[in-house]
Amino acid sequence: MNIHHLSTKPSILNKFISEIRDQKIQKDSLRFRRNIERIGEILGYELSKKLAYETLEVTTPLGTKQIDLPKKEIVLCSILRAGLPLHQGLLNYFDAAENAFISAYRHHPNKDVAFEIVVEYFAAPAIENKILLLADPMLATGQSLVAVHEAIKKQGIPKEIHIVAVIASQEGIDFIENHFPENTHLWIAAIDPKLNEKGYIIPGLGDAGDLAFGTKL
Ligand code: URA
Predict the structure, then answer these.
(1) Ligand 1 neighbourhood includes 131 CB (under 6 angstroms)
(2) Is the pTM of this model over 0.90?
């Protein structure tokens, strides 16, 4: 797997990451969603440098100009519900992409900390041989990404996969490295050292879905 860790070099990205982590600022859900979206835009811009381009001609009022433009073969797939602001950020730049949505949640069968991932809803265009961008803001254990990948594979094998995430644990990265094809790219804004016993990233930011959309039962 090719890992692109963006906060190894300081940039304005760090400002947005600090705001989503900050326990006071993150309470403003509008700002939280917009910051995730801004991070999605930056990750999308960086990953655009690895895509395939074709030379096309654009006609201006005064002449023509050849320009390399990305090929129209992107499917942007997000994991509900926390992935939605990240999806929007990516879609702001890849506005011609097709869209897919998949649900994955942690089910605790014994009401303790042990959980399994349940994938229920999947709505997608054809994926076979396309470039799949898979958006999930928090790469914690990596189990939901792997479960989602298994479900997607039944509908078609993409040519290339780009996983886009905001904060990852090192453990989660190690786990997905063993389950995704070798030519997969991981675009990650920040990497944190560990998980707690409930599978939350430490220090992380808390629950991204709740911060963006409110708590659920
Ligand atoms: N999902 C979250 O929203 N936060 C974590 O820390 C882990 C998974």
Answers:
(1) no
(2) yes
pLDDT above 80 (res 64):
yes
Helix axes 29-48, 13-21, angle to 10 degrees: 150
Residue 138 or residue 216, greater confidence? 138
d(CA 139, CA 1): 15
Q: What is the CATH number of domain 2-213?
A: 3.40.50.2020
Ligand 1 centroid to residue 11 C-alpha, Å? 24
Residues 7 and 189 sit within 8 Å (Cβ to Cβ): yes
Examine residue 38 and say whether the peptide bond preceding it is cis (omega within 30 degrees of 0): no
Question: Which of 18-22, 65-69, 114-118, 141-145 shows the lowest per-residue confidence on average (mean pLDDT)?
Answer: 114-118
Ligand 1 contacts CB of residue 138 (under 6 A): yes
Write the single-letter amino acid at 193: P
* Contact yes or no for 16/190 (Cβ under 8 A): no
